[in-house]
Structure formats: structure tokens, C-alpha cells
Amino acid sequence: MRATVDLDLELPPAAELSPVHFIGIGGAGMSGIARIMLAMGLQVSGSDAKESLLLTALRAEGARVDVGHDAAHVEGARAVVASSAVRPTNPELARARELGLLVLHRSQALAAVSAGRQVAAVAGTNGKTTTTSMLTVMLQHCGADPSFSIGGELTESGTNAHFGSGDVFVLEADESDGTFVVYRPQVAVVTNVQPDHLDYYGTAAGVDEGFLQFARSIRPGGRLVACADDEGSARLAERAAAEGIAVTTYGADAGADVRLDDLRLVGAGSSFTVVDHGRTVGRATVRVPGRHNALNALAAYTAMVALGQPAEAALAAIEVFSGTRRRFEARGTAGGVRVFDDYAHNPGKVLAALETARQVAGGGRVVVVFQPHLYSRTRDFAEPFGRALGLADEVVVMDVYAAREDPLPGVSGQLVADAVPLPPERVAFVPSWSAVTDAVLARVRPGDLLLTVGAGDVTMLPDEVLARLDEGTQR
Questions:
Q1: Stronger pLDDT, 204 or 261, i.e. the higher one
Q2: CA distances (Å), 334 to each of 325, 339, 448, 466, in order?
Q3: What's the pLDDT band for 158 if we cut at 50, 70, 90?
Q4: 405 classed as catalytic
Q5: Distance (Å, whole) CA 387 – CA 367
Q6: From CA 273, how far away is CA 261, in angstroms rounded?
Q7: Among residues 92, 153, 172, 175, which one is catalytic?
Q8: Is 129 in the active site?
Q9: What pLDDT, on the 0 to 100 scale, is given for residue 157?
Q10: Is position 125 annotated as part of the catalytic site?
Q11: Which of 129, 132, 437, 459 is catalytic?
């Protein structure tokens, strides 16, 4: 799909896409767009490789959803939506092209449903899901009723998308395949720019150039909100400003336009003072842990003000946000072990998750289970993954979750395990999924914090571990 995306395609109004068919409708991003189209009154169908709760929810909302891919599924559709993960050999995609149907990338479908609204697009190598979620919840608290499409589910509402009555459309802009340039935002937020998705960009310089193209896509009169604390984002801000793009920077850096001051990390949250262009607005309270989430909250505040919300209202709204699923999500406690789950899948995200775990664990030990995501990413970043995991006391590394890729010779989770700077007895590579729970139970003890990390099916592990721990306490 990636190689054939026409980013200059003039998109028709969303209403003209119906009936529309989604290949891989159960994905986090795809399901959200499908939900919005259903709310708009469009006829929606879709398919996915396996059954899931998301498919059940989409059926209840009016979509026709099939399990398995078959060329017959696109018959009768006017448009077909696919992501970069869908291969050209997929029978539905191949049939759509054979029939001459309009084939849209996921980002183009999202651009179509957000057209005509004041778009706030949140991008960044790390933190974009949480920041998008924060901005959405804060706008809701201020009565704006924004439309939104997020790559994760809000804790407050349990959904990843909504077609609101307000003028603002908040969306998570995925940089992985370069298609995030299609949204034409009024406000574009960039939390950080770090090397990732090198299978697409090739080099760190290529990543920088991709984000500059994103900044250039801001509509006339719009604004870039960029983090001054991150080197890549700060470089982007300078380059964008030099091209005449309006820029507001945020961060703890002394030169930031909107500054975080007197940060205090306390338990499962934090507080800080907001200084906006030299004016002290007040003190913000964040209900999710970690320094990175304090910065995410400041990014959301800055975007709120850029969208026209009063500074004091934006500040007060920060405290409303209570989290996003799979972003340091508390999954339960059993046998004296607290279990958390996080979607982190690049070195920066993993480092932030481990730093947060250390904050929340207090004096307790941290045990981490990490499932690498993609063979190419594991090959390119095994060393920084290992360094980040070294913040834990005990490490279990699973084998690679392949997702859209074929295996690469010599690439496995062992590369990551070998890079962890801890004594060998405190690091285990466990290639068999079924053996992971036993490996974890052999390492945890009362008072520990267990963190499962990765973008694959490692998220199923906490329930199994908690059940086994609970069985142990009842004997």
C-alpha cells in the first residue's frame, strides 16, 4: 500500500465514499475511522484476520464485518480503505484495484472525515497517543465536544473515536509511513522527533525531513506546537520558523515559549507551574505518572490555547485526564505484585515506561517483560532497547512480534536480551509464548511492580499472570 499512495490525490467528500470497505477494520486506527463514518451515516463494511472485541463493537454500531480476507468482500463498495500493513497481494486489495475502485490509505480516509473542521493533529515519535487523548479530554471538559480519532482507547469513555458536534477534530498523526502530511491541520503538535521507522525513512535525517514536511502541511494561519526539550523537535521548530511557519515551543527548557516550572513527581502523578510567554498562569496537576506525561500535558495545554481556549480553563482541564488504555495501564494486583501494561515499542517509549515504573514502584523492585515489535526495528535498535530495559531489576525478553514483516535471518529477541546491561542471571530470553508466564512467576515476589511492554500480544500476559498469582495466594 505504501508505495502506491498518491498523497496529492484530491479527496472526495466523505459522503461520496459510501459504501466503503475497510481491509483490516479491527486495527486501532482503522476501527476509529470506521466508527466516525458510521456516525456520519455512511454504509461501512470491513474484514480482519481474526475475531476481536472491536469487531463485535463495530457490528453493534452498524458495520458489516467478516473474519478472513476474500475478494468477494469488496463487491458493491465504492471505496476501499487500507493501511500500509496491507500487502498488495491481499485478495481484497487486488480485487479493488482490478475493479477500478477508489483505494484510499488510512490517513486519506481520516483526512476526508476531518475535512471542514479545525484540525488539531498530534505527531511525534513518542507520546502522541497520550497527548492526543489529553487534548481530547481537556476540550471535552471545556464543552467543545470535539471529533477525535486516537490510536488508543480513552479511559473515560472506553472508545478511540467520536464524531462530535464541535468545530475541532483532534487526530493522532502517525508518522510511520510518511502519510501524515495529508491532514492540513490548523494546529500541529510535535512531541519529539527521534529515529524510528527506518524501514521507511532510511536514516535519522530522513525522519527529520518527514516531520518538516508535516510542518509544511499546516494550513495558512495555523501553528506548530513543538517541544523545546527534544533535540529533534527543537530543530524542527527552528527550520519551520525560518520558513515563516508560526511556532510555539513548550517544555522545561528556559527558552521555551510555554514553560514547565517547579516540576514535582509524586506517586502516580505530578504537578508543575505553567509559565506562558512570561506570565505565570498557575499550577497544573497531572493524574498520570512520569515526567514525559507532564510534558505531554503541557503540549495539550499549549494546543488548547492555540485553538482559542482560555489559558485558565486549559490549565484546569489538565487534571481531568485519567489515562489511556495500554499507556502504563494498571491491570491489577495479586500476590502482592502490582501489574501494569504499556504499548511502548521503540527505545524512547520503553525508556519512558521504565522511568515511570521506577517512580511508581518507590522502593520496590521492577520486573519487566518486553516483546520486541518488528524484525527491522529489533535489528536497528537492539542496543538502545537493552539499555532502556537495564533500568529494571529483572528482565524477560520475548521473541519478536512480526506484525507486517517476514522474519530476518539472525534477528530475534535474543539480540535485545544480550544488550541488557544486567548480570546474566537477571535477564532471560524466552522465545516460547507459553513459557513466559512461568518465567515471570519464577522472578516476581511480593512488593514488586511487574510491567509488560510491547505493541503485540504481550498485552494478554497480565491477565494470565494475575490469575496464576491469585491462585497461589488462595492455596
A1: 261
A2: 20, 8, 11, 6
A3: low
A4: no
A5: 15
A6: 5
A7: 172
A8: yes
A9: 61
A10: no
A11: 129
